[in-house]
Design goal:
Number of domains: 3
Low-confidence stretches: none
Number of strands: 22
Strand content: 15-25%
Oligomer: single chain
Structural class: alpha/beta
Strand order of the largest sheet: 8-7-6-9-10-11-12
CATH superfamily of the largest domain: D-3-phosphoglycerate dehydrogenase, domain 3
Shape: elongated
Distance between the termini: 16 Å
Radius of gyration: 30 Å
Amino acid sequence: MAPRVLVSDALSETAVQIFRDRGIDVTFDPALGKDKERLSEVIGDYDGLAIRSATKVTGKLLDRAGRLKVVGRAGIGVDNVDIPAASKKGVIVMNTPFGNSITTAEHAIALMMALARQIPEADASTRAGKWEKSRFMGVELTAKTLGLIGCGNIGSIVAERAHGLKMKVLAYDPFLSEERALRLGVTKVELDDLLARADFISLHVPLTDKTRSILSAEALARTRPGVRIVNCARGGLIDEVALAEALKSGHVAGAALDVFAVEPATESPLFSLPNVVCTPHLGASTTEAQENVALQVAEQMADYLLTGAVQNALNMPSVTAEEAAIMGPWLKLADHLGSFVGQMTDEPITAINVLYDGVVADMNLEALNCAVIAGVMRAANPDVNMVSAPVVARERGIQLSTTRQEKSGVFDGYVKVTVVTEDRERSLAGTVFSDHKPRFIQIKGINIDAEIGAHMLYTTNNDVPGVIGTLGTTLGRHGVNIANFTLGRSAQGRDAIALLYLDETPPETVLNELRGTGLFRQVRPLQFEVG
């Protein structure tokens, strides 16, 4: 059955057509975004939800969304999506961070120019029949120093435009490398240095616990006298009350804001001040940007629902379509390895250690880790997936460690998973052969070559005669067919294991009969999601 997507906000018809052209059953009902009750009634029928800002994806809505796999936000901001709740439900949340980068950067430049020349106030004065030419004395941008707080997608475009205006550009961004700063032609500085040197400050960071009120009263006091401040990023980055006081005192010469701590902003201490330019969150409001983000979110959601490719996800590592094609068998292997040790471990897990060897060590390890954790956690919670499993693991205090190493053996690559509890460690390794099928290659340090099926039986025993016959005759007597039978031992007469691929789950009576023979230390049925 084709995936079903609901578009509950106003997306372009071209974007909606992308879903149709990709074979996805799409419902376009932009009125639903403002009708919480009706949206709640129908959301359970859909695998994907495409939204803008009107639709509120709350925990209550997610509780009703039993089929939902992905929420796609056409735009950057996801304030209207409860991401922690989505993660717990295993729902991927995507945004479109690049579709409106140019538009937002251009708006920041426009506000900076309007601020430098007092254009909005001069326009209002002139329209009122006044001719106050001497009142509106501006400043040039040429040779001024622009301080960028944040130099990512949008900040870097602002830097490029500022160079065209012959401005000097400083950048405070902990994630900006010296090499990229050099390529962008910006000087990387610490925040205090930027505050002290910049004639104009433009903010381009997300709102997080670390960036909230990054321009606080104390920070504003450290700015250069006469500084002008532009914010097209997020409300809450500036202490608006403190900014109003700094504007009144003249320490800050002007401010231009497109975003506010509370939106819609119907009142603010800044509105009555003459040296302030305000716009109603217009950063992404161009025809081109709205079309771009709509097309981008449709492509991203379709790619995920049809191929498993994950782009611009906020609660899961991204996996490109190319990576998904190559990594698909390895992701299945990672899940199977986690599932095996998860099903074998009854006591609380304290740590999961994953070793990647050879070709797999160069792949997207974040995504592979998520698959391992999902496999481990599914034994206790069948509903977890690659999105929700890491959240569940963190809540339980499980530590994850990852090691990568160059090819060290006969296999081009392999993955080894070790689960740690208070009493023991349990390890399992696997690889992917040229047929793209995952295999188990080592259990408890014993080498094997086991095909993975939906229904399997794992036994441990001392290496003595009669084990194979007992397994075969007991299962055969009860009509349980063996598709594949793999054996391994540490040494003659020592520890031995058997892994049987069966056509069905063996009944409990069969398991008890095997346990009653006294030959086996463990008799454990295992289930795997294959196909």
